[in-house]
Amino acid sequence: MQNYLVISVVGSNHPGLVDTCATAIKDAGCSIVDCRMTVLGTECAMLILVTGTWNAIVKVEDTLPKLSARWDLQIVTKRTEIRDHTNDLMPYAVEVVSADRPGIVSDIAHFFTVRNISIEDMYTSTYSAMHTGTPMFSLHMTVSVPTTNSIAALRGEFIEFCDQLNLDSIMEPAK
């Protein structure tokens, strides 16, 4: 029987950090099922879903404090299970671009939350507009829309919502 562990790693970005974490997981007899890694400022953040036998998961858990001390990392783990797939959800990609301002992520998350639509994945960034230097904001997310929802109505509500906030947006099926 496979067991699953979610590992959250945050620490200063160093060459070899991903290699070290991946090697420790492999050496314990586990496999990486899913992983997200990014550099935020001078910090590196990783979310890793690991699978293995119960003994192998314990070995990973025992190894992580040593990695934490060696690399000055904050590591949090949580046992989990594989999520059941349901046939009543459709994945949709949402993209938003606008002039940057506080609260955009909160506003968009709230829009979907009150409609009982789960955010599955999200990536945001800020940058300077090419010719003007205006601070800009960009958001990419995947949401799970219940098949009972009218896509046309939801898309219309979302576009109207974004227009009211002066956000340029697209909502289309995730491919």
Give an account of the 3D structure.
- Strand 2 (31-40) and strand 3 form a beta hairpin.
- The chain is built from 4 helices and 8 strands.
- The chain is 30% helix and 44% strand.
- The chain is flat, with a radius of gyration of 20 Å.
- The longest helix has 18 residues, at 54-71.
- By secondary structure, the protein is an alpha+beta fold.
- It folds into 2 domains: 3-80, Alpha-Beta Plaits, CATH 3.30.70; 89-173, ACT domain (Alpha-Beta Plaits), CATH 3.30.70.
- Helix 1 runs antiparallel to helix 2 (54-71).
- Strands 2-3-1-4 form a 4-stranded antiparallel beta sheet, with helices on one face.
- The chain starts with a strand and ends with a strand.
Number of DSSP strand runs: 8
- State the separation between the terminal residues, measured CA to CA: 32 Å
Give me the Rg, rounded: 20 Å
Query: What's the CATH H-level superfamily name of the largest domain?
Result: ACT domain
- The overall number of domains is 2
Tally the helices: 4
Helix content: 25-40%
The side-by-side strand order for the widest beta sheet comes to 2-3-1-4
- Using the coordinates above, name the CATH class of the largest domain: Alpha Beta
Shape: flat
Q: How is the biggest beta sheet arranged?
A: 4 strands, antiparallel
Beta-strand residue fraction: 35-45%
Structural class: alpha+beta
The average pLDDT score comes to: 95
Order of helices and strands: EHEEHEEHEEHE
CATH architecture of the largest domain: 2-Layer Sandwich
Point out poorly predicted stretches. none
- CATH topology of the largest domain, which one? Alpha-Beta Plaits
